[in-house]
Design goal:
Helices cover 75% and strands 2% of the residues. By secondary structure, the chain is mainly alpha-helical. Among the domains are: 267-357 and 368-530, no CATH class; 710-758, no CATH class. It has a two-stranded antiparallel sheet with strand order 1-2. α3 (34-45) runs antiparallel to α5 (76-99), α5 (76-99) packs across α21 (467-483) and α16 (319-350) packs across α21 (467-483). It starts with a helix and ends with a helix. Residues 126-409 form the NADH:quinone oxidoreductase/Mrp antiporter transmembrane domain.
Length: 785
C-alpha cells in the first residue's frame, strides 16, 4: 500500500502548498521538501529487497469489466527513477523556496512542482499500461503549467503551448501503441507483457505498435525532429528547468524505451530507429549547445544530446550498452541538476546568464564555483566521477570492430566531446578571469540556492568510488529489468591503457580540449552555418500551427455557414446513407412482407395518415404545413389506441395538440404564416432525400421486425416492476425508474427547446421594436424637413 501512497503524496502536498506558503513564508520550501525527502527515504528502504530481485506490487481495481486496475510496482528500473525523482525533487523544492522568494505566486508554483513530481513518480511506478498513460499525460499537463508559469510573457505562453502540443500528440500515439500491444499480448500490465516477451515481435502488427510507442517516447524525450520544444521550455523558471532536465519529463521517454526493450526490442527496426534518431539528436544537441551563449540554453541543448545518447544505447540493447545507459542516466541527473541550479544561482546573483559577459565570479560566489567545477568534471567524464564510469562502459559496448559499432562509436566520441566543452565552459568561464560588470553586484545566494548544487555535484564525483555498491544495488536489478535476463555487473574504477574504451575516452578529452580552446571560433562558425541554413524546426512548427489554424478556419466556414437548410440536408442525407450502406454492403435487405388483411378501422388510420401527407404537400404556408403534419401524429395516436396502448396514445395526442397551440401562439412573432418558395430543382432534391430517409426508416423497421424477439427485458420488467419499483404500470416504471436518467434527458431537451423559443420571441420583439423606433425617428425627421 505504501507504493500507492508514494504516487499520491505529492498531489496531497500540492493541495496544501499555498496555505503552507502563506503561513510559513520563507521557510515553506524547507517544510514542503519533507514530502519528497520522505519518499526518497522510502525508496532507499526498498534497495535491499529489490537488490535481491524482489518485485513490490500493489493494485486497486479501476475498471474491472475490462481488467484495468490502478496498479503500481517497484523493480530495479523503477527504483532507480524513483530515487532520482524524489531525491533531486527534494533539493528542487528547497531551491524553489529561495529562487522565487517574494514572488506573489510562489504558493501556486509549489503546487505545480509537486504535482509534476507526483505525475512522474506515478509514471515510473505504474504497472497497468493505462495507468501509465494517465500519468504520462499528467506530466504533459503539469509541465504546461510550469513552463507557462510566467503567463504574462508571450514567449512563456508560446513555449507552454508548444510543449503541450508536441508531447500531447506523442501521448496519443503512445495510447494507440499501448492498445495494440494489449491486443497483441493479451495483457494490459507491464509485468504481464514481460511474461509474454517475444509475442509482440512475432505479430503482424509489431512494426505499427513499435513505431507508435517510439513516437510517444521521442516526443516526450525530445528526439529529432520533435526536439524543438525542449530548448523553448527554458522560458520556465530555473527550478523547473533543473527538474525537467535532470529527473522528470524528458526522462519519461527514456524510461518507456528502457521498459519496452524486453517487449519490443532486439529487432532490426528497433535497433536502427533508436540508434539513427538517437545519434542524430546527440550530434545536433551537442553542436547547438556550443553555439549558445545563454547558460540555460547551453544546458538545454546538452540535455538533447544526452537524451539522444541514452536512446542510442537503449537501441543497441547489449548488456554493456544497457549498463552504460543506466550509469549515464544517474550521472546526467546529478550533474545536470547541479549545473542548472548553478545557472539559476548565477542569474539570481548577477542578473544575467550570458556567458560572454560573465567572468571573475569565483571570489563573490565561491560555493557556487565549487559546485560548478565538480559538476562540470562529471559532465566531462573525468576520473573519478560517475560520468567517467558511464563513458567507459558505453565505449566498451561499441568496441567490437564491426562497422555499425565503429560508426556509432565515432558519434559518441564527437557528442561527448561537445558536451564536455559545455560542461567546462559553464564550470570555468563565468568564474575565472577578471570580474566583469553585471546588472547588479554579484553575491552568493542563500543556503537554499547552493545546498542542492553542492550535494548533487559531490555525489556525482564520489559515487564513482562506490562501484561495488552500485553494481549490486543499482546495475544488477535495473539492468536485469531492461535486459530481461540476469545481469552481473562488474563496473570498477580503473585506467587500463590496454582497454580500447580508455583510448576512446582519451580521444574524447583531446577533441573536447581543442574545441574548448577554440570555443569562440567554433561558436561563430556554428552560428554562421545556422544563419546560412535559415530554416529551423521551430520555424516549421510555427508554420504548421499557422496552417492548422487556417485550415480549421476554412473548414469551419465551410461546415458552419449558418444556413439551416444545408445543415438539415446534410444530416438527412447522412442518415439515409448510414441506413442503406451497411444493408447493401452486407446484402441484408429484408424481403418485402405480404400485405396484411386490414379491418375497416385500420384502413381509417391509414387514410388519416394519407390525408395528412397530402395536406402537408399541398400547404402554402409554414403554419399550415406544421399543423397538417400534426395529422400524421394523430394517425399514430389512433394506431397506438387500436393496438392496446392507450397511455402512449394519450401522450401522442397531447404532444400534437400542444404543438399546434404553441405554434399558434408564436406564429405572429416568428412569421410562420409566410410561404416558402422553392424552384423545381430544389423541390426534387428535397423530395428525393425525404423519400430516401422515409424508405430507409421503413426498411430498418422491417429488419428489426424480422429478427427474433428477445423477451428477456420484458420478463425482467414484468417480474421486478411491482416488488422493486412498487408500480403496476410497467411503462411508467420503465420511464421513471429504469430509464430515469434518459427521461430526465428528454425533459431537459424539452426545457431547452422551450427556452430557445422564448429567446426567439423576445429577440424578434426587440428587433421589431428597434425597427419601429427607427421608422418613427425617420418620419419625424422627414416632417421637420
Amino acid at each position: 500500500m505504501i507504493v500507492a501512497l508514494i504516487a499520491v503524496a505529492p498531489f496531497v502536498a500540492a493541495v496544501f502548498a499555498p496555505w503552507i506558503k502563506t503561513f510559513a513564508g520563507p521557510s515553506a520550501g524547507w517544510i514542503l521538501a519533507i514530502v519528497p525527502a520522505a519518499i526518497f527515504a522510502t525508496f532507499i528502504s526498498f534497495i535491499g529487497p529489490i537488490a535481491d530481485f524482489s518485485v513490490i506490487r500493489v493494485g486497486l481495481d479501476w475498471i474491472p469489466a475490462y481488467g484495468i486496475s490502478f496498479s503500481f510496482f517497484i523493480d530495479g528500473l523503477s527504483l532507480v527513477f524513483g530515487v532520482l525523482i524524489s531525491g533531486i525533487g527534494t533539493f528542487i523544492v528547497i531551491y524553489s523556496g529561495g529562487y522565487l522568494a517574494g514572488h506573489p505566486h510562489q504558493g501556486r508554483f509549489f503546487s505545480y512542482i509537486l504535482m509534476f513530481m507526483g505525475s512522474m513518480l506515478g509514471l515510473v511506478l505504474a504497472d497497468n499500461v493505462f495507468t501509465l498513460f494517465v500519468f504520462w499525460e499528467l506530466t504533459s499537463i503539469t509541465s504546461f503549467l510550469l513552463i507557462g508559469f510566467d503567463h504574462s510573457r508571450q514567449a512563456a505562453r508560446r513555449a507552454a503551448i508548444q510543449a503541450l502540443v508536441v508531447t500531447g500528440g506523442g501521448g496519443l500515439a503512445l495510447l494507440a501503441g499501448l492498445i495494440l500491444l494489449t491486443l497483441i499480448t493479451g495483457q494490459n500490465s507491464l509485468t504481464g507483457m514481460l511474461t509474454t516477451a517475444g509475442a509482440a515481435q512475432e505479430s503482424a502488427l509489431y512494426l505499427v505498435a513499435m513505431l507508435l510507442v517510439v513516437a510517444g517516447a521521442f516526443a516526450k524525450s525530445a528526439q529529432v525532429p520533435l526536439h524543438f520544444w525542449l530548448p523553448n521550455a527554458m522560458e520556465a523558471p530555473t527550478p523547473v528547468s533543473a527538474y525537467l532536465h535532470s529527473a522528470t519529463m524528458v526522462k519519461a521517454g527514456v524510461y518507456l524505451l528502457a521498459r519496452m526493450t524486453p517487449i519490443l526490442g532486439d529487432t532490426e527496426p528497433w535497433f536502427w530507429t533508436l540508434t539513427i534518431f538517437g545519434g542524430t539528436t546527440l550530434l545536433m544537441g551537442g553542436a547547438l549547445a556550443v553555439r549558445q551563449t545563454d547558460l540555460k540554453q547551453m544546458l538545454a541543448y546538452t540535455t538533447l544530446g544526452s537524451l539522444g545518447l541514452l536512446v542510442l544505447l537503449i537501441g543497441f540493447g547489449t548488456k554493456e550498452a544497457i549498463l552504460g545507459a543506466l550509469l549515464y542516466l544517474c550521472a546526467h541527473s546529478l550533474f545536470k541538476g547541479a549545473l542548472f541550479m548553478v545557472a539559476g544561482t548565477i542569474d539570481h546573483g548577477t542578473g544575467t546568464r550570458d556567458i560572454t559577459v560573465l567572468g571573475g565570479l569565483r571570489e563573490a560566489m565561491p560555493i557556487t564555483f565549487i559546485a560548478a567545477v565538480l559538476a562540470g568534471f562529471s559532465m566531462a567524464g573525468f576520473p573519478i566521477a560517475i560520468g567517467f564510469l558511464a563513458k567507459e562502459e558505453m565505449y566498451l559496448a561499441l568496441t567490437s570492430g564491426l562497422w555499425p559499432d565503429l560508426l556509432f562509436l565515432a558519434v559518441l566520441i564527437i557528442g561527448n566531446a561537445l558536451m564536455m566543452v559545455v560542461g567546462l565552459l559553464i564550470a570555468f568561464k563565468p568564474f575565472l578571469g577578471d570580474l566583469r560588470p553585471t546588472p547588479h553586484a554579484p553575491h552568493e545566494g542563500p543556503l537554499s540556492l547552493y545546498s542542492g548544487p553542492v550535494v548533487l555535484a559531490v555525489l556525482g564525483i564520489c559515487a564513482g568510488l562506490f562501484t561495488d555498491w552500485i553494481n549490486h544495488a543499482v546495475l544488477d536489478p535495473a539492468g536485469g529489468a531492461i535486459y530481461n535476463a540476469a545481469v552481473d555487473a562488474h563496473i570498477h574504477l580503473a585506467f587500463d591503457l590496454t582497454n580500447p574504451a580508455v583510448w576512446a575516452s582519451i580521444t574524447t578529452w583531446a577533441l573536447g580540449g581543442v574545441l574548448f580552446w577554440k570555443a569562440d571560433a567554433v561558436r561563430s562558425a556554428l552560428r554562421r552555418t545556422g544563419e546560412t541554413i535559415g530554416w529551423t524546426f521551430d520555424i516549421g512548427f510555427d508554420a504548421f500551427m499557422s496552417g492548422l489554424v487556417r485550415f480549421a478556419d476554412r473548414t469551419t466556414r465551410l461546415l458552419h455557414h449558418g444556413r439551416l437548410e444545408w445543415y438539415l440536408l446534410l444530416m438527412f442525407t447522412t442518415l439515409a446513407v448510414g441506413i442503406f450502406a451497411p444493408l447493401l454492403v452486407t446484402d441484408s435487405l429484408p424481403p418485402l412482407p405480404a400485405w396484411p388483411v386490414l379491418n375497416f378501422y385500420e384502413w381509417g388510420a391509414i387514410g388519416i395518415a394519407a390525408i395528412g401527407l397530402i395536406a402537408v404537400l399541398a400547404s402554402r404556408t409554414r403554419l399550415t404545413a406544421i399543423v397538417a403534419l400534426g395529422i400524421q401524429g394523430f394517425a399514430v395516436a389512433v394506431i397506438f389506441m387500436l393496438f392496446g396502448a392507450p397511455d402512449l396514445s394519450f401522450t401522442q395526442f397531447m404532444v400534437e395538440t400542444l404543438t399546434v397551440i404553441i405554434l399558434a401562439l408564436v406564429m405572429t412573432r416568428l412569421h410562420l404564416d409566410e410561404a416558402d418558395s422553392r424552384d423545381l430543382e430544389t423541390a426534387v432534391r428535397d423530395g428525393v432525400v425525404s423519400l430516401a430517409v422515409g424508405l430507409g426508416i421503413a426498411v430498418l423497421l422491417l429488419v428489426v421486425l424480422q429478427t427474433d424477439l428477445d423477451l428477456s427485458l420484458t420478463e425482467l420488467f414484468r417480474a421486478t416492476s411491482t416488488p422493486i419499483a412498487h408500480g403496476r404500470n410497467i411503462v411508467n416504471v420503465i420511464l421513471v425508474d429504469y430509464r430515469a436518467i434518459d427521461t430526465l434527458g428528454e425533459i431537459s431537451v424539452v426545457m431547452a427547446a422551450g427556452l430557445a423559443i422564448l429567446a426567439l420571441i423576445r429577440l424578434r420583439a426587440s428587433t421589431s421594436g428597434t425597427r419601429g423606433a427607427r421608422a418613427g425617428r425617420g418620419r419625424k425627421t422627414g416632417s421637420a424637413r
